[in-house]
Each structure stands twice: as C-alpha cells, then as structure tokens.
Amino acid sequence: MEFIRGIDMIKEDFELPYRLVTERFDTLFTRSAHRWYIKLREAYGHQSWTWWKAQIINKWSNDAWRVKVENAFESAKFNADKDQSLPWLCKQKDRLTALYPDMLEFMIHRNILRQ
Questions:
Q1: How far apart are CA 22 and CA 28, in angstroms?
Q2: pTM above 0.85?
Q3: What superkingdom does the record give (predicted)?
Q4: CA distances from 16 to 9, 21, 30, 49, 99 (A)
Q5: What is the 3-state secondary structure (H, E, C) of 19-63?
Q6: Which of 1, 53, 69, 74 is the most core-located residue (most Cβ within 10 A)?
Q7: How confident is the model over 42-96, as pLDDT tens digits?
C-alpha cells in the first residue's frame, strides 16, 4: 500500500522513532479512517509502527476493500456536465494506484481512458 510505503520511507530517511510517526496518525487519518484509528488507539494505547502497519493492512488490504475499490473505479464514468475533470481523474488514478502500486503510469492512464 502506498501509505505504508510512504511512512516506511519517511521513517527510514529521517531515522524517526516509531512513536513520532504513530503520534501523527490523529492528523493524517480523516473521516472513517480517523474514527477507526481513535477506536483502536483508545482500546490498545500506544503501539509500535509494526503493530499499526499490521492493523492498516488488515483493515484496508483485504478482499472486501479490493472489491469495493475495483467497483468504484469501474462504476465511475466521467460526466462533463457534473464532474470536474481533474478531481475525477485524480480519484481514478488513486484507485488504480491503490489496487496496483507497481502499475506503470502510462498503463494507469490507458486504463482510465478505456473506461
């Protein structure tokens, strides 16, 4: 997952202790992810980045999540009358990147254009 990869790189590049990373989750997560984080944080207290990484993978990298994102990608048809092109394109790109993190940029664009 892109989020985990990004956190791992920042943690490594700046040699940050796990606590400095995990304490930022309160501001990083929004909406349902923030509610999920608060619930786990209250239940389990301070935990290591390794523990949080496992929780994130368990929550968002499962078959149900994958199907939900795939369905959202496939059902999102661009409508010039109601959609703004850049936000729509970015959302579709984010969905494909989440599903296929190693997909080449031109393949992402090709899949979006084929819709």
A1: 10
A2: no
A3: Eukaryota
A4: 10, 7, 23, 11, 28
A5: HHHHCCHHHHCCHHHHHHHHHHHHHHCCCCHHHHHHHHHHHHCCH
A6: 53
A7: 999 999 999 999 999 888 878 888 899 999 999 999 999 999 999 999 999 989 9
